[in-house]
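Example: Phytoene dehydrogenase-like protein.
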Amino acid sequence: MSTAVVVGSGPNGLAAGVVLARAGVEVTVLEAADEIGGGARTVEAIVPGLRHDRCSAIHPMAAASPFLRALDLGRYGLEWRLPEVDCAHPLDDGTAGVLHRSVAETAAGLGADGPRWSRLFAGPAAGFDRLAVDVLGPLLRVPHHPVRLARFGVPALLPAAVVAKAFTEQRTKALFAGVAAHGFRPLGRPLSASIGLGILTAGHRYGWAVPAGGSGAITGALAALLRDLGGRVETGVRVRRAADLPRADVTVFDLAPAAVADVLGDRLPARIARAYRGFRHGPGAFKVDFAVEGGVPWTAGAARRAGTVHLGGTFAEVAAAERAVHRGRMPDRPFVLVGQQYLADPQRSVGDVHPLWSYAHVPHGWAGGATEAVIAQVERFAPGFRDRVVGIAVRSPAQIAEDDPNFVGGDIMTGAKDVRQLLFGPRATLTPYDVGIPGHYLCSAATPPGPGAHGMCGVHAATRALAHLRERGR
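Written out as structure tokens, the predicted fold is:
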């Protein structure tokens, strides 16, 4: 029987393990931390019984993942829950851009921009299951559905600022800005529209779902399936150098590129080692979790029903904040993402005390504070919020990186998603999962299609590993 070692137990590492194990490979997953999950973990914090997601929280791309949907993970406890409203982006006048799963319902709330929103998203959302084959993989390859991909891909190539010019309503522009800002990129850069368009299209097909009980349910279900397939998961095993790796026919790394270079050392071809060590990381996240009594008193009614709330004001304000953090400056009013997962999944709350998940975009490696800036942004759109907070837990970019070394400098995207790295991954190649040593592969979110708990980076890396085994007759 062929053997495989997977280093790292995030969604991509576990997905790689499942693909290999289903093909009859004996799989061992090694995790440095004492618990599995990487960025997809859930813990009790602040108040006993209050459940907070450590990093990833809202999952339109995971719910849409063709790999996860094919696994019937409900057998292992994964149950998707949907809020009444997917996302709200409040403005200072009390209005909000409101995103529903339904394209038609969303368009109906966007005034004169409704027809434009429908033209942009109705077709791609309806055909997302076919589109996903192309967008959730390496972009530089012959597409399976070229016409469908072109319809989606042409606007995705544009800066988010250019796409936003198609809209006339401030709430529509702001709504699009907030989703595009998930890419941690200046909104005037080419391809900065791509991540936002991908999230919106997947969300219009499957909704901005959350797993019942927390994001840890995703990795918990994958690990349970892997064990049923005969695989093993070992925690508390840190791989620092090649000598720490057990002998195996294939090795798959769910690590940041520089960490792979550190592990493999001189075994790695020099040009690949240079590319991995020169891999660029983007701005960081400053995470603030709250325990809130009675929920958040948002001025905009839709925000009180939304699983996700984006705080940043107008498109111009969000764009200015993203430019600042990209240049290493901390804005007075950073872009803040707020998760109200408990609205779809009430078991995360304790009585009338609810877990509020949030983080601000900050410069890479930001060593200063941002707690007050986050609170001020929430208070801006929900006067009286401070009075309802009964507890706070803070994690700086350094603490985020310590908790998950893939997130260098607090970069929860596992690398800057600029044009080159979004298209190619950590090095210029048509095979971004190959590390240049036969039988060794990279599957972290540094590779296409990038961040999210969808597992597709792991799927593609494992597929390359299986091709290698077939070539070797293993």
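The radius of gyration is 21 Å.
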